[in-house]
Amino acid sequence: MLPEQGQLTVLVVGPAKDLPLNVRELIVSRNLSPLYAPDCRAACEPSLLAKADAVLICGEACHSWSPADRNGDWLSRSDARYQLELLADALASHRLTGVVLSPGRFGVMPGDDDPLMFAPPDASADELWGRIAAIQQYRPLLERMEEQVAGMQRLGKKLNEQFVEVDQELRLASRLQRDFLPKQLPAIGDIRFHVLYRPATWVCGDVYDVQRLDESFIGVYLADAVGHGVAAGLLTMFIKQAITGKRIYQDGYVIVPPHDVLEQLNAQLADQQLPNCQFVTACYATIDVRTREVCLARGGHPHPIHVGADGTCVEVRTVGGLLGIFHGETYPSTSLILEPGEKLILYSDGLEDVIISRRERDDGQTHLTPEFLGMVREPGPQFIRAMEDHLDAAEGSLQPSDDMTLVVVERLIE
Fold first, then answer.
1. CA separation (Å) from 118 to 356, 375, 385?
2. Same domain, 125 and 197
């Protein structure tokens, strides 16, 4: 809908006494209220722009503008062009659009943000009115859009502040969680431990520990709270406090066998009545440093892998359901002897694709990936470095889908 006649104030930029005929006809036929500025620099006056609804720039005010080659570049940056650019900036600040009567160029001025529209000098009064009317008609819409954009910018700023605050809190939570992990892994006799720990986000759903229980026994475990992030990270703190490998009495202590550790952990998790989607998997083992016997139990966790001195790999299979679902679950343990040069590997399910290539449906036999079989032959430290390099080179390594943790128990070659 066109604005009503007699309501528009148009700032005319150009010599007031020598206006083009079409401009004079426009002012008279449409009963416009004109304001005058002799040139572009004078038209930048805020008091003039504050009164104007639209701006009409006559060719005499920008006569130094001339079209250049076919690519539409300008030949020079004359003073007239500079003044017109100043006016364009002033118009933008006042949410105004100007119509420039200039030969050889039509449409909008080059530049996405310039509020100038070009028209031929011989355009009729009706054509000029159509352009000005269109400008006035869409001006309220543009103003509303700018208000909405400003509101979105304020919202974006607020959200960004909140994201920064959440990010700082998650960074702090990550540091606190890492403080609960072992600062140094024990080295007793010829038994060594090595760890790969890679959270998918700031807060990890995996937790591990290696503790010397007494002069003869070491307890080691790896637990995985389903998922990753804050909820899983909070559950790992509960797991760490709930796992007890040694019970102390007034007259002494006893080393808690692995099956008992997991049964007690399952009971405590079940008592919490966790949501149906929240559960835990874990593998717990004790190591007798005198005999090098490893006794372990697992609950819903990937089967540990026993690596022979020649690189032969065998899964150590034990039964045991998920932790925290049902009371009264049992977790039978099994044992093995670590010979010189052998390893026992505990890992979370975030590494299954790296370690397991496939499982046979008929007999349940597990086939390991060639990459893993090649890396696992190396001594513990070199094996961990090779795994890290392999993960870094994998597709999507910057945004892993799950936490990745691996604990290696190694007996050195004498």
1. 68, 70, 66
2. no
Residues 257 and 402 in one domain: yes
Reply yes or no on whether the pLDDT at 75 is more than 80.
Answer: no
Q: Is the pLDDT of residue 152 over 50?
A: yes
What are the residue ranges of helices labelled H in 251-402? 258-271, 352-355, 370-375, 380-393
Residue from 301, 158, 311, 159 nearest 224 by CA: 301
From the CB of residue 22, how many other CB atoms can be counted at a distance below 10 Å? 20
Listing DSSP states for 354-392 in one string gives HHEEEE-TTT--EEE-HHHHHHTTS-HHHHHHHHHHHHH
pLDDT attached to residue 208:
94
If one counts the domains in the chain, the total is 2
Helix (H) / strand (E) element for 34: namely strand 33-37
Whether 155 is in a domain gets the answer no
Nearest to 226 by CA among 204, 205, 241, 209: 205
Residues 93 and 199 in one domain: no
Closest CA to 262 of 277, 242, 279: 242
What are φ and ψ of residue 224, in 5° steps?
Answer: -135, 110
Q: What pLDDT is recorded for position 78?
A: 57
Place of tokens 């016997």: 293
Query: Is 173 within the bounds of a domain?
Result: no
Residue 4 lies in a domain: no
Quick: pLDDT tens for 197-232.
998 888 888 999 999 999 999 999 999 988 667 778
- Rounded-to-integer distance, Cα 218 and Cα 149, Å: 62
The answer to whether 20 touches 58, Cβ cutoff 8 Å, is yes
3 belongs to a structural domain: no
Q: Do both 126 and 203 map to the same domain? A: no
**Band (193; pLDDT cuts 50, 70, 90):** very high
Helix (H, G, I), strand (E, B) or coil at 153: helix
Sequence-distant (6+) residues with CB within 8 A of 283 are: 221, 222, 223, 296, 297, 298, 299, 301, 302, 304, 346
